[in-house]
Amino acid sequence: MPKPTKGARLGGSPAHQRLILANMATQLFQHGRIRTTETKAKRLRPLAERLITKAKKGDIHNRRLVLTVVKDKGVVHHLFTEIAPQFAERPGGYTRITKIGQRKGDAAPMAIIELVTEPLRGTTVTRTTAPAEPAEVEAEETAPKEAASAEVPAAEAAEAAPAESAESKKAES
After folding, report:
1. N or C terminus: which one in the chain shows less Cβ crowding within 10 Å?
2. pTM for the full model?
3. HAMAP family in the record, alphabetically (predicted)?
4. % of the chain with per-residue pLDDT over 70
């Protein structure tokens, strides 16, 4: 549970603010999206993402930690069995806040906070293997020169060329 902020709160007291956020998190996990004010949505996002991260771990300790916030056991079960596996590969960013304009009665800025359902795009950065040692690089650079010379038989030159092209393809990808 986040530490209540100083100054204006969502409720009248820190305890009321915690209850409001807990109820909103419960409704978010139950329905997948909720319509609320922008301020409440911005306060709810870190709490909801922290709860989803705990659900991804899936052990009994984290289930009990989530149960301290979300009081409905059915919603916690839904979070651990259905929502968390959807986000297993996603490193974060489980929620999305979309601004939808002003409320008619008091012109409060409204927003929709929802769970992201789209699959993660393949834009993750992967590390390539360490570059070859200098001795291996020199040997690879001299192989084509040897293949071009008349001293190396044609069969050995043919074997060296495909091996070099396969290594260059690996280095490019």
Report:
1. C
2. 0.66
3. Ribosomal_bL17
4. 68
Predicted local distance difference test score (pLDDT) of residue 97: 96
In 3D, which of 52, 61, 48, 43 has the Cα closest to residue 3? 43
User: How do strand 95-102 and strand 33-37 relate by DSSP bridges?
Assistant: unpaired
CATH superfamily entry for domain 14-115: Ribosomal protein L17 (3.90.1030.10)
Domain ranges of the chain: 14-115
Q: Is the pLDDT of residue 158 over 70?
A: no
Please enumerate in sequence order all residues whose Cβ is within 8 A of that of 33, keeping only pairs 6 or more positions apart, or say none: 112, 113, 114, 115
Which residues on adjacent β-strands are paired with residue 112?
A: 35, 98
Spatial distance between the Cα atoms of 92 and 115, rounded to a whole number of angstroms? 11
